[in-house]
Write a structure and sequence with these properties.
With 187 residues, the protein is of the alpha+beta class. The protein has 5 helices and 11 strands, in the order βαβαββββββαββαβα. It folds into 2 domains: 128 residues, no CATH class; 47 residues, no CATH class.
């Protein structure tokens, strides 16, 4: 099963259904197709006593798979790095799954306010908008500007006009749908 990784501040927006679109490099269009179920990838970190935690909120990861020694036993840290990026998170550790509804070419620099809201931009009061964690340096006067600020925060510069990428639209899948797809090897 493929994993679609998200930065820590975006994970709650994805899991709540507030974020329903993401943009990736152009090659992502070949990896994601409508109807495909993917795991929501998020960074993992080691916790006390060898446990594994989601970095976004420090919740302990449990191993729900039938092969676990005890039902819902705590997952153990087995990686040689201090943080495991969401892109590399094993799908069994996902606490959320998505159904891809479309994957199309798109120019991120041409995003509209409506589309920026689907990306997770939200009103933080006093006609100010933010995407993700709402830090003051990422606040803006419009959803579109908030998207550009967060993009620049992640990539070091705003999106480049004329450069195409992949716009991936998705909806939340139930845990049952996601775990069934994972168990059956579907994605």
């Amino acid at each position: 099963m493929r994993v679609l990784g998200f930065s820590d501040p975006l994970v709650p927006l994805v899991l709540s259904g507030a974020k329903t679109v993401t943009r990736r490099g152009l090659t992502a269009r070949r990896r994601f197709a409508p109807g495909q179920i993917v795991a929501v990838g998020e960074a993992l970190v080691p916790g006390p006593c060898g446990t594994v935690r989601y970095r976004a909120d420090q919740t302990v990861v449990t191993d729900w798979r039938p092969t676990a020694v005890l039902p819902h036993m705590l997952a153990e840290w087995t990686w040689k790095t201090r943080t495991l990026a969401g892109t590399y998170m094993p799908a069994w550790a996902a606490r959320g799954f998505l159904v891809i509804t479309s994957a199309t070419e798109d120019e991120a620099a041409a995003i509209s306010d409506e589309e920026a809201i689907r990306e997770g931009a939200r009103n933080v009061g006093f006609w100010r908008w933010a995407l993700a964690d709402g830090r003051s340096e990422l606040r803006a006067d419009s959803p579109r500007e908030a998207f550009f600020a967060y993009w620049a925060h992640l990539h070091g510069e705003p999106p480049t006009p004329g450069v195409l990428g992949t716009r991936i639209e998705f909806r939340l899948a139930t845990l049952a749908e996601g775990r069934a797809a994972l168990t059956e090897g579907k994605s």
